[in-house]
Amino acid sequence: MTPTRTHTDILNAAGLTATDLAGGDLAVHSPIDGAEIARLRQTPAAQMPDIIARAQSAFKVWRSVPAPRRGELVRLLGEELRAAKDALGAVVTLEAGKITSEGLGEVQEMIDICDFAVGLSRQLYGLTIASERPGHRMMETWHPMGPTAVITAFNFPVAVWSWNTALALVCGNPVIWKPSEKTPLTALASMVAFQRALARFGDDAPEGLVQLVIGGPETGAALVESPAVAVVSATGSTRMGRIVGPKVAQRFGRSILELGGNNAMIVAPSADLDMAVRAIVFSAVGTAGQRCTSLRRLIVHNSIRAELVEKLKTAYATLPVGDPRDAGTLVGPLIDADSLARMLAALEQARAEGGQIYGGERCDAVAGGAYVTPAIADMPGQSAIVKTETFAPILYVMGYDTLEDAIDLQNDVPQGLSSCIFTLNLREAEAFLSAVGSDCGIANVNIGPSGAEIGGAFGGEKETGGGRESGSDAWKAYMRRATNTINYSAQLPLAQGVKFDI
Ligand code: NAD
User: Which of 237, 244, 419 has the most ligand 1 atoms within 8 A of CB, as the residue to mutate?
Assistant: First the structure.
């Protein structure tokens, strides 16, 4: 069924007006059909110092607002997002090309992190620590860090902002958001929801608490390079992280880097193959392979390799590729033609490295969009292309004989985001999760590598950057820790028994 709402209808429903969408030189295209849907004004470089100064002023006010009160703003944001879920989800679909349920799922993730952060606003706990000195108490307290830059990628255009912003706000930090230049409209629409929450909150929220800047890498660089920006949370390619990480480190700022992944699944002989097939297909082709946690490498025990590959080919043959707004579609478009070209080039290289390719054919599901059938590349080993993250639906398949070999293959890539094993063997499952198992930030058993819940800390090791966001104690990255010792005695004993009598 062809959707009846126009691009403009969808943008208007999310609160964006004709004035928001025109008058600039940043052309925004929908990956659905390549149509230009807006021309946005970019934030001039000359305005960046003022924007950062506004965030610094906002910090001076916001850090003193009690954390549970800060949580109230995030609670209201969650309410506004609930009300705007359909409208905002449709903009995600329009601008990032996600199928409808994934667009809505992304907004749900925003709502979930708001709920999490509201609870967190009453749980920013520090420890009380036993002091070695009599009549002393030692403790730690957590304080806000300061202005936080949130630089986001196109593929999770709103969820990643909310993971960072919900936490940064309850932790007492103002936020400056630089979304991907490919998805600025979802950012504008998210800010509409935020402004509604702010209007309901009351007047103890300072001006400039959350600001949006529009532009490409140079706009991000202004935030990265400013010593006034205390935290830089940057999500995107490892190429970007290699530039951003050292710049922030150079000025001793704090960075949270969420970079590329090259996620694997090990399928052991005891695996429930039907369940594994469902998990593989969802995690390899969902979001057209454009999740940082997409499954890219399948490491299958040689005794079941042929059978599993046949089952996958059967499943792939029926995958509906098409307009992401259509109810039956499971695979939408790639973000743009460059992305498709990179996928086709990767498949060429895989062929040259001895791979047998199934699928990976360009298709014209909707004129003007970059549509492709997901590919399976049966590889003779973990060659150079398999170790590279290609942000598209390519699944490389390799065989193994012993679990040790499988774990070696799993870990022998530069990236370390997500991983999983399908097995019914307890020893194998536990070994995979142990210190000698997966080296990734996320390691699962009998679940695919993608689709993380917000309750856990999200992020990965090695070239994935080492950052953690979202749940667990990821909030600590947005705060600074102070260790406090209080002497309530009438003596002044020194630590380590040092004597210094005067
Ligand atoms: P990208 O690196 O091209 O861009 C990401 C963001 O960084 C954009 O906002 C961009 O403008 C900005 N940027 C780029 N260079 C910069 C610079 N020098 N200084 C400051 N900002 C700069 O990534 P993309 O194509 O939008 O997204 C896809 C990539 O993101 C994939 O590699 C994917 O794995 C990764 N990703 C990782 C996670 C994670 O949590 N680990 C989540 C989503 C996406």
Answer: 237
